[in-house]
Each structure stands twice: as C-alpha cells, then as structure tokens.
Specification:
By secondary structure, this protein is an alpha/beta fold. Helix content is 39%, strand content 18%. It has a single domain, classed as Alpha/Beta hydrolase fold, catalytic domain (Rossmann fold, 3-Layer(aba) Sandwich), CATH 3.40.50.1820. It starts with a helix and ends in a 9-residue tail after the last helix. One of its GO terms (molecular function) is serine-type carboxypeptidase activity.
C-alpha cells in the first residue's frame, strides 16, 4: 500500500494544486508597478459561447473590490462604447479605475469609483481588447442583439463564479455607445428575472450616451455654433442642407452624397482639426480616451486624426508581464488595442433608438441617470437633455427637482433636473465626452449620489 501511495502521490499533489489554482487563477496578486492597496483585484475570462466547455468565445473582465467594506457595497458593471472599444483601457485605466499608467508604473487614482462600489469592467463584444472568439467568422457582422445576449450570459456566469455578489444591489454604468449596450442588456436582465430572479438590478447611469441618433447627433450643429466653432452661414447649411445624422447615415451605408461631403468639409475646415471635439476647451491628446468616441464619429472628409504616438495605457497593457498578471491572452491579434481591429460592427444599429427601452426600464422600477460632460460636442448635453425631458413627459413623470446647480467642494459641479424619483439628468461642468477622465472629482460626487439615491449637493461642501 505504501508503494502505491507513492505512485499516486504526484497525481494527488497535482490535483490539489490544480484545484487551488482554479480558485486563485483569477485573483491578481499585484500588477507590475502597482502601489500597495488593501482591496482585492480579479481578472480573467468568462466563456459565453453556447457550449461552455468548448472555450469558443471568452469575454475578458477586470474586477476591483470596493476599497472599504466590499460586502456592503453595490456591484457596478462598467461598459465603454465604440462600438468595439475597451472598458479596460478606457474605463479602468484612463477614467474611473483605481490606477493610471505612468511610465513603467501605476499611480493611484484618488477619485476611483471603487471608493463607492465594487467595480466590474468588461471588454465586450468578443474581438475587443483581450476578449476573443476562436471562430473568427463571429467578427464578420456583430450587432447590438448579439452583444446584449453575450453580456447577459457573461453576467449570469460571473455571478456563479463570485456568488458572494449575488445579493448585492447591481448597477450598470457607461458612456457613449454604451447608451445602446446598457439599456439592451438591462432589458434582457428584466426579462430573465421574470423566469428566475438572479439580477438585483437597481439602476443605470448613462454618460454622454447615444440614445436617439438624430436628436443626439443633430444637436452638434447648435453646439458648434453656440461655442463659436462654426460661422452663421455654415450653421445654416449644417441644419438645413445636410445635417449630421444624414451625413453619418450616408457614410456608414457607403452612399455619401456630394452635397453632404461639401457641407462636412466646410464644417471640418472651420472647427479645425486642432480642436478636440470631445472636449472643446481642452488642449490635450490622450489616444486611449479619445478612441471610443472616434468610432461613432466617422472620419470627416480630409480630416487626419492625430492620435498621440506615445500612449501609456497601450504600452502598459501590451507588456508581457502585465498580461501575465492579468491572466490575459492575445487570441488572434498581434497586440492589445483600445478599439478593436478585427470586429466588423453593424454601424447602422446607431439608428435604432434606445430611449424607448429606457422608458420601459423606468416603468419596471429601475432608476436612470443620464449625465453629460458639458464640453462634449460629439453627444452634446442639449440633445440628451431634450431626450430625457421628452421621455419624462411621455411616461408621465413630473419634475420633482427643478433645474438647478449642484456643488462639488466650493465650486459648481454642474446642473441637474429630476423627474419623479426614477429619472434624472445632470451635467458635469467642464467635463468632456469621457467625464471621469476630465473631471474625476465631480464625476465621483455624481456617482456616489446616484448610488445612494440622494439629491446632488445643493450647497458648498
């Protein structure tokens, strides 16, 4: 017996090691160059294909526990837009995650959203960032429906992997094209809950979101004009001869008319390629932050997009030691990119309004905050404000907090209006398309108030 035990011993040890590895394989011991922190981080893949064992489609996530008392804090899923851009590179490492790359190291983000919540960043759909499909034909024509379905399966399986979060209040937040991703995912969650309640979904926070294509995109002309970026005569052309939604529609269906082309050249010439359309007051160039917004704005005629050569996030996430620490793999792509180089997304999905879905979600008891960085000319606050106001009228919500300022510290943080106790609109003063990047402190105040269901501060803090 003694000798047979010896024969079995290596196998036994291997089995024990494998079992403990499975439970630890996703825990990040420490990221290269990371300052010491007390909260846990996890990352890895969740298989979302129909057959789990076949490992045919894996979505990559990065999960950061709340700084203090994660057991009592809500769970927040963060999604970036594009479509096809990375929540890891944009959301986690440039906006509201705990660290920002700086040279070879990471530095703490003092206004990280994990001060208020357990944050889950998801690279979606497959083909974005470290997420992959082994069957590359999957990338040929991905649309909103496919993305929402995979995201639902992801959340379901993620909660099975982290059952301690099953009972937590769940929120979904994001920006830009996530104005499509989030409502459609939430709708599937609500439907799923009718069969079996597993998602404790409480609310959605949508930043500078695409909710209704024509309203969102056509408010750009007025924004350009009112901020002095275009002339009176060009403003007239841009609102009557060829508006922006028509231009984008033609561009993505390969039918750009000479008239739209001419109007757009005029707009481009006046606004100048030296002004950042995602933050009209900012002189900065950080490619990872801008990439997701460049996707929903097709390259304008003759416009060269100057993306910074040196991007710290891209450099950091392409390091082998970083990928090992994150349990990340490059499948079918040579390097990690902010926005997908392999994905062929159906851009005409832009035209499907999601504001109506937002209305049905509010009716089913889910709180919604739409917030706008007020320096963004891509999805300007005026369009979002109009959409929220019209939705409130349509579903019969009366104004409960009239339009007013809110404060962060001793400064005005922005403006807000609340409808009933389910729908609110807020601006973040001085913020770009990516609000937590350009105004981290104000964005955190807004986020904390939203999670707590409390009004935004009315007085100096």
């Amino acid at each position: 017996m003694h000798s047979s035990y010896h024969a079995w011993r290596p196998l036994l040890l291997l089995l024990i090691a494998t079992a403990s590895q499975l439970s630890l394989s996703e825990k990040i011991t420490s990221l290269p160059g990371q300052p010491q922190v007390s909260f846990e981080q996890h990352s890895g893949y969740i298989e979302v294909g129909d057959n789990v064992s076949s490992k045919n489609r894996g979505l990559f996530y990065y999960f950061v526990e709340a700084e203090m008392d994660p057991a009592s804090k809500p769970l927040v899923l963060w999604l970036n837009g594009g479509p096809g851009c990375s929540s890891l590179g944009v959301g986690a490492f440039s906006e509201n995650g705990p660290f920002r790359p700086s040279g070879q190291n990471l530095v703490r983000n003092e206004y990280s959203w994990n001060k208020e919540a357990n944050m889950l960043y998801l690279e979606t759909p497959a083909g974005v960032g470290f997420s992959y499909s082994m069957d590359t034909s999957y990338y040929d024509n991905v649309d909103d429906k496919m993305t929402a379905k995979d995201n639902l399966v992801f959340l379901q399986r993620w909660l099975e992997k982290f059952p301690q979060y099953k009972g937590h209040d769940l929120y979904i937040a994001g920006e830009s094209y996530a104005g499509h991703y989030i409502p459609q995912l939430a709708q599937l969650m609500v439907e799923y809950n009718q069969k079996q309640k597993i998602f404790n979904l409480k609310g959605l926070a949508l930043g500078n979101p695409v909710l209704e294509f024509a309203t969102d995109f056509n408010s750009r002309a007025e924004y350009f004009w009112s901020h002095g970026l275009i002339s009176d005569s060009t403003y007239k052309l841009f609102t009557s001869v060829c508006n922006y939604s028509r231009y984008v529609g033609e561009y993505y269906s390969d039918s750009l008319s000479p008239i739209c082309s001419r109007v757009m050249s005029q707009v481009t010439r006046e606004t100048s390629r030296f002004v950042d359309k995602y933050d009209v007051t900012l002189d900065v160039c950080i490619s990872s932050v801008l990439s997701q917004s460049l996707v929903i704005s097709p390259k304008q005629v003759g416009e060269r997009i100057d993306v910074c050569v040196e991007d710290e996030t891209i450099n950091y996430l392409n390091r082998k030691d970083v990928q090992n620490a994150l349990h990340a793999e490059l499948n079918g792509v040579a390097k990690w990119g902010v926005c997908s180089s392999v994905l062929n997304y159906d851009f005409l999905n832009l035209r499907n309004p999601t504001i109506t879905i937002v209305g049905s979600l509010i009716k089913s008891g889910i709180r919604v905050l739409v917030y706008s960085g007020d320096q963004d000319s891509v999805i300007p606050l005026t369009g979002s404000r109009t959409l929220v106001h019209n939705l409130a009228n349509k579903i019969g919500l009366k104004t409960s907090v009239p339009y007013r300022v809110w404060f962060e510290g001793k400064q005005v943080g922005g403006w807000t209006q609340v409808y009933g106790d389910m729908l609110s609109f807020a601006t973040i003063r001085g913020a770009s398309h990516e609000a937590p990047f350009s105004q981290p402190e104000r964005s955190l105040v807004l986020f904390a108030s939203f999670l707590a269901g409390k009004p935004l501060p009315q007085t100096f803090q």
